[in-house]
Amino acid sequence: MAYVSTNPSNTSDVVTEIELGTSRTFVDAARRAKAAQRAWARVPAPVRGQVIGNIGRLVEANFEPLAQLVTREIGKPIAEARGEVQEIVDTANFFVGEGRRLYGQTVPSEMTDKQLFTFRNPVGVAAIITAGNFPVAVPSWYIIPALLCGNSVVWKPAEYSAASAQAFYDVFQAAGIPDGVFEIVFAEGSETFNGLEQALQESLVDKVGFTGSSEVGVRIGELCGRHLQTPCLELGGKNPMVVTEDADLDLAVQGALFAGFGSAGQRCTSLGTAIVHESVYDEFLSRFVEAVAAATVGDPTSDVLYGPLLDEKFALAYEKYLGWIGEHHTVHGPTGRITDSSPRNGFTGANGFFYHPAIVSGVRADDELFLQETFGPIVGVMKYSDLDEAIELGNKPGYGLSCSIYTTDPNKAFRFRAGISAGMVSVNNSTSGAEAHLPFGGNGKSGNGSRQSGVWVLDQFTRWQSMNWDYSGKLQKAQMDTLEIGANLDFRLG
What we know:
By secondary structure, the chain is an alpha/beta fold. The chain has two domains: about 260 residues, Aldehyde Dehydrogenase, Chain A, domain 1 (3-Layer(aba) Sandwich); about 200 residues, Aldehyde Dehydrogenase, Chain A, domain 2 (3-Layer(aba) Sandwich), CATH 3.40.309. The chain is built from 15 helices and 19 strands. Strand 16, helix 14 and strand 17 form a beta-alpha-beta unit.
């Protein structure tokens, strides 16, 4: 079946056309990856690190074409697209050195003439399934460390970012990765799931990494659990931003603007609800509304706050989220698609999936708008009276990916950190913005506690193996043949 990827800023612009595979396509790719993995694992880790270094240099050499392609295909503002490509470079630069630091440990034995060791071994074949809102950065978080650790990879990117995915794959292949070690599969979601199910049944996949919706993450978690595997799940978010009574409001507004509306609110780390202290609520809301009204929306190749929604299916889903706005809410400005009959001041776009930014105040803790992820340019605003209440509200939706607090009081910052369930906490900064060497991931409906990036991701793509070596020439039994040193435990100072 053919799939046509179009430019969401100009739907008449066809970016690429691909042929979608079937479940068998996925299984065949997993079989090739399985056949190639052992030879790749035998390549010394520092040499695998050199391949990762090649990837970094090649991405730098193809930096601008890759960024421009991301902007054209998914409508991400060019400044953010360049930042996304830089994340691949940063990730590669970090893991180059990890090829020389896949450390195990020597451990002292309780017996003489015996040594204990630990080793990191590759998991095997990693099946990586990613969304298209970060079509090249997020895949690099999985694929680079997986390859470095000696795994082979089968990658299923989103169809609507197929051209970006193919370019990413081509750059990686040029870095010297052997045949079969890195496979790409384009397939629709249900075919991918069926293929993954069959590959797991045939023991062709040893680790699954998934970035996408919480609903699909639950299904993948269930499937992997039946095979006694623990997937790496990076799912949705309903990320709170708490603004305290002592916050720098101008800074908080800047953070809310970028977190809520950067990438058109289509990040898993996008701001969901601003939870603002009642004493500064009116002032914050007034400044936030003013800042959003002044922001430029439109052509993502220029300097804009955000461009279009990623694809038609996301526009349709966003229309549903707008339907959650109720009579008790106050909407600040127009909502829905930007059209000639519903214009926006300063709009620079054309024929695409462009939507007005929506600020909704008067949000309540039992609103769907508060409880559910809203993947698009909409931010809720609500009041709180004390910090414990704000923390409780921040935790209530059950997600636990990212959050932020704006305060000038260190006590509040650390109380918030200790009470909030999110895997990532920002103080006086946006809910969005990951660095390549810091653990990334969430809890609850946002994930299963797995982490990406930095040294922490190594635990996703390696398994610890212990070895004991007894060179005493006799059988020494643990806990039984150990040396005992006597002591007078009845001794007391007189």
